[in-house]
Amino acid sequence: MPYVLNVVYLAALILASPWLIYKAITTGKYRVGMWRKFWGLAPVRAGDRPCAWFHAVSVGEVLLLKRVIERFRSRWPHWQCVLSTTTNTGYEVAVKNYPDLCVFYWPFDFSWAVRRALRNVRPSLVVLAELELWPNFVRLASDGQVPIAVVNGRMSPRSYRGYTRLRWLMRQVLSRVDLLAMQSQEYAERVISLGAVPRRVQVTGSVKYDGVNADRANPRTRELARMFNLDLQPPSGSAERQLVWIVGSTMAPEEELALGIYRRALEKFPHLQFILVPRHKERFDEAASLLARSGLAFVRRSHLGQGQRMEVANGSRPIILLDTLGELGAAWGLADVAFVGGSLGKRGGQNMIEPAAYGAAVTFGPHTWNFKDTVERLLACRGSIQVADAEELERVTLDLLGDAEQRRRLGEAARGFVLSQQGATERTLDLLAPWVEGLQGERRCA
Questions:
Q1: What CATH number should be reported for the domain holding residue 41?
Q2: Given its phi and psi angles, is residue 322 left (phi above 0), alpha (psi -120 to 50 degrees) or beta?
Q3: Which of 150, 288, 364, 399 to pair with 182, CA 20 to 30 A apart?
Q4: What is the pTM of this model?
Q5: How many CB atoms lie within 10 A of CB 145?
Q6: Which residues contact 283 (CB under 8 A, 6 or more apart)?
Q7: Would residue 15 count as lying in a domain?
């Protein structure tokens, strides 16, 4: 099986190489880390302390694991933790957020790369965020008696349909995983139907609710407010108070649609501050070009130096393009109204938990299967509004900007819901405890 997979992976890599080369030349993607991934050149870990190898695919998972790793290290300080990631942007954010951890690239799933990485890291436990399972890695770690745990596991309807076509392979992979801590009962049932051992599947809720900031006066949000000349606590009833509309985690064509709505919103709300945050780093320049063509004033966050403040002339506020990594979480704390992107196109939506925790009036489009359970619960408690299309988004956004009481009701319901859902991190660590504390008991079925 490993040799068959190696051939399949090599064939796929050869077929994709023209596209990879094109992207490397035109966008800079895939230039960094490819060699290390191909050969499994993970750092050689020194010392004999037990080691937990955490893996996060990209930026979202890197930030998701922050609370889990912090609590893991606090609870078991004698353990060493290392972190791998797949994408270049994930690596950048990981290095920034975990300055005292060994951060490296996850190996491609070639048997030689996986063997070298496992040999260099020598993990005592592997913890994978969400459901990042690769057959060769799982098989070789399992053969080496290294427990494998999935935390905050999820499986969207689209992923599930794809995996059912490979049910024979998924059964082999899932049967070797020691713990699948899933976000919901629905996700748990899906992995069991694909071959996971039922007693190893547990429902913990979503770790994404834990560690989210619900305090708008936190230091990072306050610094952004200072930089953008925004007042977090304006005088009550001020007619000149600026409203903040954040459109975050966007994918094409959401930036263009939001820009059109903003143009029309300015007629009613001339002091509106519009903050645009594309989902991927590779699209920052594309969004900047769109704003430049619009003729509207804008400023790129990356061009504001340390201690610098954005200029506001005669009450006219330029659009802010937040083109930095890892700051959207704090920026949501500035929002009166928040639109969460990836939901008008067919990408399954992005994380709406962070703006909800701050008590923003949260909106999103119809395609949100990546956060199905969260969306259903937010809608049930009347803590968000789901729109069908760009036309409805415009109507709802203008209504919210003009109705402070409606914004307050939505925000309070959303914030209360998020706070009520917390606790998944501790439940997850309790499930990891038998391996961490050496009380494994029976690990596998016969």
A1: 3.40.50.11720
A2: beta
A3: 364
A4: 0.78
A5: 10
A6: 251, 252
A7: no
